[in-house]
Each structure stands twice: as structure tokens, then as C-alpha cells.
């Protein structure tokens, strides 16, 4: 327990140390405001800890202990009013995220399809993506798996799922079956998305954040962006020809893997790849760092063919090593590393 002079004692559940300190500082502020405002003219909106059922003065936020959530270390919940926010581009990006690594958890319960939750699961390296979703929507919760390097954003309240489905309906192109079942459960009319992605649509950025790769092709001496999906009736309709202005991807069908790949791999068009992702940034820091270096790479690209001990080749080598080492613990396993060190 934490005691403060002239105010009640409050029982706190198990919290992270930083949150504990945050509460302490907030109560100090509250205490001194009460001393100043003797007539109690301040209008504080009380919220309640789900564990303690005691008031705290954090507006629009509920932070819940995860001690009862088996296998997870922390649960974060936030609820907020979204009025007045322009979220159109955000939801296009989010649709790409969901088409990549999202899941509509629809179950058959007593012969009826029930939407239990909507989830997005990502590697901890890309947790900034989940943070952006949480900080923008202020609904749902983020769970960190203490046994694996993964985190998951989840919404399971019907009103929250209704809000999300209403905003991504007409934007989902790959996880269509799950969206249709979710719409049926919530009583929403399903809207089919336009598969001809418009120029500079953030949808592609969301897809790359989750399912895309930004790689260095050593033999071709270029930075590439690649996407690969299972080939089906939905992915076969996906048209990415216009989304990056002046840059159409090569399309590769692999029958042996039943897959379809979209490859941005032309040297002359690398700058257009850069321009698109500067306007529609990636929230995977690992991938964004790589794509943000394209213009710098163009300046040193031709140094690859300079003598190995020359200053030019050293500049080239330093750039490539930095590029592949960033947030990549397995960089030393890359085959061409020995050729440039």
C-alpha cells in the first residue's frame, strides 16, 4: 500500500514498477490540486482498476494486471472516444496488417457461428505496429507471450469488434472469409474491396509491415521489396500495379509452392519504392530502417566494383554491413558477408 498525507490509502494490484511510480506522481498532483482548489471546482473523471475497484484519476485509460492471464506477462487496456479523428488512411493501413497477420476468431458454438475475438500477432521486433494500433484506437489489449518472442493485440468486446468491422469493411482483400462470417455475426452487410489498389494507398504498407520483406540482392546489387502469398481466389485478384507510382511489381507464380509473389526488384525504380514508404511509412522499425537507406545506397552502389582496398569499396562495405546488421542477430549467416568484409 501507498499512503499519502490527508488522502485515503489505495490498494494497488501487481503492476510494473514504472506504472507504480506513475500512480504515485498522479496522486501527488491530485493532492496538491485539492489543496489549491478548496471549493472542489475541478471535475475529475474517475476510472476504476479492474483488480482493486478503487478510483484512479487517469482519464480514458484502464491498466489491468495480467497475473491471471496464463502464459502472458502483461495486459494493457485503453478505452477512448474517437470523435473528430481522421482515420481513413489508418484503417487502410490496418486492413493490410490484418490481411497479413490478423485473425478473425469465428467459432461454431451450439451450431451457431460466433465471433470470439479479432487478433493480430507479431514478433516482438515489430511490436511498434501493435503500439500504433493501440495508441490510435484505444481499444482492446496487448498481450506479451513470456515464453516466445511474440505479442498480440486482441479485441473481444462486441462493441469494439463492431466498431472495427464497420471501419475495415470494404478494405479487407485476403482474409475475406473471416470478415464475411464476422459481418454475419454482427449483422453488418459485407462490402467487397477494390482489388485494384489505388496510388499511394497505405494498404500496401500494412501488407509489407507484416508479410513483406525488404532484402538486399547482392548479385543484382539492389534493395528489393517482396511479397509472397498462398495462391487462391483472393490473392489472384490482387493488383498492385498502381499503388507505387511509376513502379509495377513483377509477378511470379510458383506451382510447386502454390504461391504468388509480387517483387519490386528493378534498380532504376528503387527511388520510387523509397518515395512510397516515406509517404506511407512502415511501422516495423527493422523494415523501415532498410527502406529508408535506399537513397544513400544509390550514392554508393557503384563502389561495389572498385578495388577491394580502395576508399570507395570501404564506403560500400560499411554501408552494406550496417544495413544487414540492424536488428538482425543472424546477420553473420548471410552468405555474401565474407565478400565485403
TrEMBL record:
<feature type="domain" description="Homing endonuclease LAGLIDADG">
    <location>
        <begin position="94"/>
        <end position="169"/>
    </location>
</feature>
<protein>
    <recommendedName>
        <fullName>Homing endonuclease LAGLIDADG domain-containing protein</fullName>
    </recommendedName>
</protein>
<keyword id="KW-0496">Mitochondrion</keyword>
<dbReference type="Pfam" id="PF00961">
    <property type="entry name" value="LAGLIDADG_1"/>
</dbReference>
<dbReference type="InterPro" id="IPR027434">
    <property type="entry name" value="Homing_endonucl"/>
</dbReference>
<keyword id="KW-0472">Membrane</keyword>
<dbReference type="GO" id="GO:0004519">
    <property type="term" value="F:endonuclease activity"/>
</dbReference>
<keyword id="KW-0812">Transmembrane</keyword>
<keyword id="KW-1133">Transmembrane helix</keyword>
<dbReference type="InterPro" id="IPR004860">
    <property type="entry name" value="LAGLIDADG_dom"/>
</dbReference>
<feature type="transmembrane region" description="Helical">
    <location>
        <begin position="12"/>
        <end position="33"/>
    </location>
</feature>
Amino acid at each position: 500500500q501507498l499512503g499519502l498525507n490527508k488522502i485515503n490509502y489505495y490498494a494497488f494490484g501487481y503492476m510494473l514498477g514504472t506504472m507504480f511510480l506513475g500512480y504515485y506522481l498522479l496522486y501527488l498532483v491530485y493532492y496538491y490540486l485539492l489543496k489549491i482548489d478548496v471549493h472542489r471546482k475541478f471535475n475529475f473523471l474517475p476510472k476504476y482498476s479492474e483488480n482493486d475497484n478503487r478510483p484512479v484519476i487517469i482519464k480514458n485509460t484502464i491498466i489491468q494486471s495480467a497475473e491471471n492471464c496464463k502464459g502472458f506477462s502483461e495486459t494493457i487496456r485503453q478505452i477512448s472516444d474517437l470523435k473528430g479523428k481522421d482515420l481513413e488512411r489508418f484503417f487502410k493501413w490496418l486492413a493490410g496488417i490484418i490481411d497479413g497477420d490478423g485473425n478473425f476468431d469465428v467459432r461454431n458454438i451450439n451450431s451457431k457461428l460466433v465471433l470470439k475475438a479479432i487478433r493480430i500477432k507479431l514478433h516482438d521486433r515489430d511490436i511498434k505496429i501493435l503500439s500504433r494500433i493501440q495508441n490510435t484506437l484505444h481499444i482492446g489489449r496487448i498481450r506479451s507471450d513470456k515464453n516466445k518472442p511474440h505479442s498480440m493485440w486482441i479485441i473481444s468486446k462486441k462493441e469494439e469488434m463492431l466498431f472495427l468491422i464497420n471501419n475495415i469493411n470494404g478494405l479487407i482483400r485476403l482474409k475475406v472469409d473471416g470478415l464475411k462470417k464476422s459481418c454475419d455475426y454482427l449483422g453488418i452487410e459485407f462490402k467487397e474491396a477494390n482489388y485494384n489498389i489505388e496510388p499511394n494507398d497505405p494498404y500496401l504498407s500494412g501488407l509489407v509491415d507484416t508479410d513483406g520483406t525488404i532484402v538486399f540482392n547482392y548479385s543484382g546489387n539492389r534493395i528489393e521489396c517482396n511479397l509472397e502469398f498462398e495462391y487462391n481466389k483472393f490473392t489472384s485478384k490482387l493488383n498492385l500495379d498502381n499503388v507505387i507510382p511509376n513502379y509495377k511489381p513483377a509477378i511470379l507464380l510458383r506451382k510447386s509452392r502454390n504461391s504468388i509473389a509480387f517483387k519490386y526488384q528493378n534498380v532504376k525504380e528503387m527511388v520510387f519504392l523509397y518515395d512510397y514508404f516515406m509517404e506511407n511509412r512502415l511501422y516495423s522499425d527493422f523494415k523501415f530502417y532498410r527502406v529508408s537507406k535506399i537513397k544513400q545506397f544509390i550514392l554508393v552502389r557503384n563502389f561495389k566494383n572498385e578495388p577491394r582496398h580502395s576508399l570507395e569499396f570501404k564506403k560500400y562495405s560499411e554501408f552494406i554491413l550496417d544495413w544487414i546488421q540492424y536488428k538482425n542477430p543472424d546477420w553473420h549467416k548471410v552468405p555474401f558477408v565474407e565478400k565485403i568484409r
